[in-house]
Amino acid sequence: MTALGHRPPPASYREATARRRLAGVLDRGSFRELLGPAERVTSPHLAALGLPVAFDDGVVVGAGLLGGAPVLAGSQEGGFMGGAVGEVHGAKLVGLLRRAERERPAGVLLLLDSGGVRLQEANAGLVAVSEIMRAVLSARAGGTPVVALVGGGWGCFGGMGIVARCCDAIAMSEEGRLGLSGPDVIEATKGVEELDAADRGLVWRTYGGKHRYLLGEADLIVDDDLTAFRAAAQELLARPRPLDLATLEQEHDRLARRLAELGSCADAAELWRAAGAPDPDRLPLLEADEFRSAVAGVRRGEP
Amino acid sequence: MSVAELLDALFPDGHAVREEGGLVLGGARATPGEVAVIGIAGGAEVGVEAAHALAGEVLRVVRELPGRPIVLLVDTRGQRMSRRDEVLGLNGYLGHLAACVELARRRGHRIVAVVHGDAVSGGVLPLGFMADEIHAVEGAHPWVMSLPAMARVTKIPLERLEELSRGSQVLAPGLDAFVGLGAIEPPWDPPFSAALAAALARPAGPDRRAERGLERGGRLLAVFVARCVGGGDAHGP
User: Fold this and answer.
1) Contacts of A278 (CB under 8 A, 6+ apart)
2) Which chain A residues are closer than 8 Å to B219 by Cβ?
3) Which of A27, A30, A119, B14 is the most exposed place for a label (fewest CB within 10 A)?
4) What is the pLDDT at residue B33?
5) Largest CA distance in chain B
6) CB–CB of B199/B32 below 8 Å?
7) B184-200 residue pLDDT tens
8) What angle do CA A113, A114, A117 make, to 5 degrees?
9) What residues pair up with A34 in beta bridges, in sequence order?
10) Rounded CA separation A207/A199 (Å)
11) Are the CB atoms for A210 and A221 separated by under 8 Å?
12) What is the Cα–Cα distance from B8 to B193, expressed in whole angstroms?
């Protein structure tokens, strides 16, 4: 609190760089980067196209502490090619997850901010995403929880949207966006009448944190604030979801209920009404706290 | 090659597989015994219903047929792109499907994929690309995005992309490129039943696609990078 009694302005997660997000989420000064920019491992495929490269290939990986517990963490830098996954970028995340299998830290945090596969190295990017999926599930099967944080400016799309849902849990901000085919891709492929990518309200209610939380696709919704994401990461690491038959059958039933109850809804606003959300037109205006209370009774989360 | 022809070639000793709505579900007799068959046919796009049905079939096999090998058939032009699929959380359904395949692996089900048509992005990631071994037969055509669409998104002129993709395993659509990257094995020669028997007989191991990409010259950095970050031999204990 300041002398005037106001809360200090929150440190926006969305506006922060990949490294700043790690610094704000993990214990102060605890992060140690692996294969950092000094090693200058860059994308040979971008270089071959005459495109700029980054010394970290758009992702920061390493080890740190969260509440004193050792964790591994990867953070995608949306500022470089929209956080898209190429060969080197993907292999850094795969290496991080394999280190987790070996070291068994308290958990792995994936700070996802990505449009998905990097089209400039399309095939290698797709295979890399597949390897990340396998590595996430393998780490989980080995007993290490993996938690995704989604609150960056590029959202979490394409194959990385699948990766997020291979994790134990997801924390999102209202401003975060999560999906598979992004608005631009759907508009370019299916036409503007299917999805108008310029309609910000439509894009927000389709992919945004509130919808994903109400649907039970995101486990927590938090303010766009580094401290809030830090708290969410701690909370979610403490309740891992076992990769066993009983848990996956429960999830299967939950996804079946969604199709049965809400499957006729082609628009999120329609879905909120069908789900019984109170005053659905007002939901977009609520702060995270108010929103959580407002939808507590109708949210389709874990049983 | 149609699905019926492929099934006859893979399982000359018999199969009972039904094809409905682009999905292929059933069982067959292979060497060394019964296998479950789960797949996507006719290039079908995978939307929320298909993803859920496929996951349900994987879970059924895990529950009712412990340890039975699973043969995944892949012919899909990718995820269904629609507002409704996104509203309902298609990425979540696909993540669930991938987790179900991983569960089957952990419980001792051998998982072999056979790509026999298109294999695209969100259709191949949660099923075919989750297999222990990913094989191909004639007609296999993996790709990510058409070059014209890629040109629009990347702002690289189409002519330049076409020129670049000719010599590039990371850009060219098609099986050769994905074999070079280590993602898919070179196409089987007939008889496919013998090739499948050999694949089913090999023990499951860790994901070694990056190592094969290095051996084949398609991905020179992935192994090095994963080992630098992962430490050890990068495949855990």
Assistant:
1) A294, A295, A298
2) 87, 124, 127
3) B14
4) 95
5) 53
6) no
7) 999 999 999 999 999 99
8) 160
9) A61
10) 12
11) yes
12) 9
**Are B70 and B57 a contacting pair, CB within 8 Å?**
no
Contacts of A95 in chain B (CB under 8 A): 225-230, 234
Q: DSSP letters of A140-189?
A: HHTT--EEEEE-STT-B-THHHHHHTTSSEEEEETT-BB-SS-HHHHHHH
pLDDT in tens, A28-70: 999 999 999 999 999 999 998 889 999 999 999 999 999 999 9
What single DSSP character describes residue A117?
A: B
Q: How far is CA A40 from the centre of its chain?
A: 26
Helices A245-262 and B90-106, axial angle in degrees (round to 10): 160
Query: Would you state the structure tokens that stand for residue A268, as one six-digit string?
Result: 């999120």
Element (H, E) at B132: none
- Residue A235 CA to residue A232 CA, distance in Å, equals 5
Place of tokens 């486990």: A219
Q: Is the reported ipTM for this assembly greater than 0.95? A: yes
Q: CB-based contact (8 Å) between A223 and chain B?
A: no
Among residues B207, B78, B42, which one has the least CA distance to residue A94?
B207
> Nearest CA of chain A to the CA of B164: how many Å?
8
List Cβ neighbours of B115 (8 Å cut-off, separation of 6 or more).
B74, B75, B124, B128, B134, B135, B136, B137, B140, B142, B175, B184
Question: Angle at Cα A19 formed by Cα A15 and Cα A20, nearest 5°?
Answer: 45
Collapsing DSSP to helix, strand or coil, B37 comes out as: strand
Kind plus residue range of the DSSP H or E element containing B23: strand B23-29
Nearest to B100 among A35, A129, A248 (CB): A248
> Cβ–Cβ of A119/B85 closer than 8 Å?
no
Contacts of B156 (CB under 8 A, 6+ apart): A49, A120, B150, B164
Cα A146 from Cα A152, distance rounded (Å)? 18
